[in-house]
């Protein structure tokens, strides 16, 4: 039995009840999170929880040293991360403690998109043409070879931050003008993939899938950053496309990439008009926002809590789940540019499983930098794919019609 140290942002901790966290992580668990959530978490969690708060948690290099020192005071410690930003530092601490060996190197494949896709391409998995991006000449050569549009992005980006679509010479000049030197760090460029976007989330335990669930994105993450609502419509797991994507996920995790035997995952792919599935990226964590709640409502399994429970007790029995009880969909509405005058803060429709308004009336908004700055999030349930899609559209139109914005 392991004693867990959990690295986790406040937003994720607040999505889970204290009793669920205690049951999954155990009474001896220690949590490290951001000081920005201290007040909310103090109200949410009982005093018995051991929580360490750090300023600038995501970017604070001291955190992993504090985690290491805390782990040294525990019997059978194991550090686990539930968010992208914490994956590598949790792996580094575990390797240093000697509870894992080479974990940092394995996780690196899930953080470095260029490394990840190079490995996938070598295994015959379709990926977009790509190159590292270290200077202007490298970008110019790539465009000369492949043409427009291309996508420039950080190799280890998260939440679509820093992703830029370059469609012409003017876009390329503007992109280069934003760089702060003649040598670029940690960037890559790839051809733009035209096709439908799908996201798959799930859990592997002991190297075997427990749950794999795929949703169709009714708009892209880039469209979401640009101000469009993002809808995710869950597919029937028995559909041919869902099975093909699930097979790809299993192959990536068990054969192509060096993976931990027990892991959460989030896979993004594009399906071209001819049916070819192209790898976008895969991460060893769940997708953001309501993904965990969406799958709990549809499949009856809390993926994050199941992951913590199996990391705490590797001998715990894992029972695969073949299909959901219902289908679910997720709606994320970004802010407009302007001042938010009013918006519906609640929704009691029968098919709306969860509704959260996180905007602030009276606040002035600018376009999002990350795909986690939505002002409204909701989960809808339905019996069929078409019913879920219809209900997502209906809810979106209702919210937009009720929200009032003023230009600034």
UniProtKB/TrEMBL annotation:
<feature type="domain" description="ATP-grasp">
    <location>
        <begin position="117"/>
        <end position="312"/>
    </location>
</feature>
<dbReference type="Pfam" id="PF02655">
    <property type="entry name" value="ATP-grasp_3"/>
</dbReference>
<dbReference type="InterPro" id="IPR011761">
    <property type="entry name" value="ATP-grasp"/>
</dbReference>
<protein>
    <submittedName>
        <fullName>ATP-grasp domain-containing protein</fullName>
    </submittedName>
</protein>
<dbReference type="InterPro" id="IPR052032">
    <property type="entry name" value="ATP-dep_AA_Ligase"/>
</dbReference>
<keyword id="KW-0436">Ligase</keyword>
<dbReference type="InterPro" id="IPR013815">
    <property type="entry name" value="ATP_grasp_subdomain_1"/>
</dbReference>
<dbReference type="InterPro" id="IPR003806">
    <property type="entry name" value="ATP-grasp_PylC-type"/>
</dbReference>
<keyword id="KW-0067">ATP-binding</keyword>
<keyword id="KW-0547">Nucleotide-binding</keyword>
